[in-house]
Amino acid sequence: MKVCLIGCGRQSQTAHGPALQRYRNGRPDLRLAACCDLDKQLAEQFRYQFGFERAYGHMDDMLNAEKPDAVIVSVTEKRSASVAANILERRIPLLLEKPPGMTLQEARALAGIAAQGGGVPHRVAFNRRYMPLTRKLRECSAELLDTQRIYAIEYEMVRVRRTDPDFSTTAIHAIDTARYLACSAYKQVRFHYRELPHLGDGAADMTLTGSFANGIFFRVGLHPVSGVNVEKVILRGEERSFELTYPVWGPPFVGGRLEYTEAGKPYVWEEAGKEEPLSAFGYEEQLCGFLEALRSGRGADSNDLRSTLQSVDLMECLRNRRTSWQCAQQQE
Known about the structure:
Layout: E1 2-6, H1 10-24, E2 31-36, H2 40-50, E3 54-56, H3 59-66, E4 70-73, H4 77-89, E5 94-97, H5 104-115, E6 122-125, H6 132-140, H7 142-146, E7 150-158, H8 168-182, E8 186-195, E9 204-212, E10 217-223, E11 230-237, E12 240-245, E13 257-262, E14 265-271, H9 277-280, H10 283-296, H11 309-319, E15 324-326
Parallel strand pairs: 1-2, 1-4, 2-3, 4-5, 5-6, 7-10
Antiparallel strand pairs: 7-11, 8-9, 8-15, 9-10, 11-12, 12-13, 13-14
């Protein structure tokens, strides 16, 4: 299997490069054939650091020469859709870093291309879906979800000095993970903003409230400038509450924690403090699981482009400062 990577920036250096390097160990048939970046010097550094065979400065040159079996794409948000479309039109299996486009229109177009001709295997890299603590929480709450005894989800994303003009491309993680844990589509959403013009154009504190199609109420708080890096989710159910505090990358790396309370008695189910970051943040499973599925010939991935459409739609709503949103039936 020949693997190529497009985009040698921070996310690839932190996640995709180390995960590929580890996955290749013990798999002599896996070739890290080439990496590519518009900054050719950066691509050469990445090639040397992670053991790729060649480096390119132009995507088409690499794809034409290498003819890879799979491509990882981790480029800027504004270029993501056009680069991904090129890969999918060539019918090459794709792992695409989030978000899969800046707009719902872009994401839908990609999903359409991927579905043509029997479909192209692909996965969208929302890493929280693959984090061990997220999956453990979803597993542990499944019984209550199945019997409609989860009543509310609260998600908090807090950051330090994130005065980006567009925080929506980070906020999409919270939007997507809440939906993933609810095991349901969003039904209706209201958006609340406190603009912070003294911190820069577009800076704002934001909250989403509403309900999922299965009746669960939610609140997603987005606090980009509140002085601490914290991310946590709380599920409230019948006689049980679950609280997940996600790990912090650091430095230093700080482990996460999953606990629950039942009838007034607290329990700790799982801690991620002893795991290394690649595993704790889901990067290893996200990438290696995709490549393993390709190697074994398994079918469609449930974490595909269509599964991200609501998340992209709500991300776009945040960017455009919409105040309300109602689910379109076709997105469910």
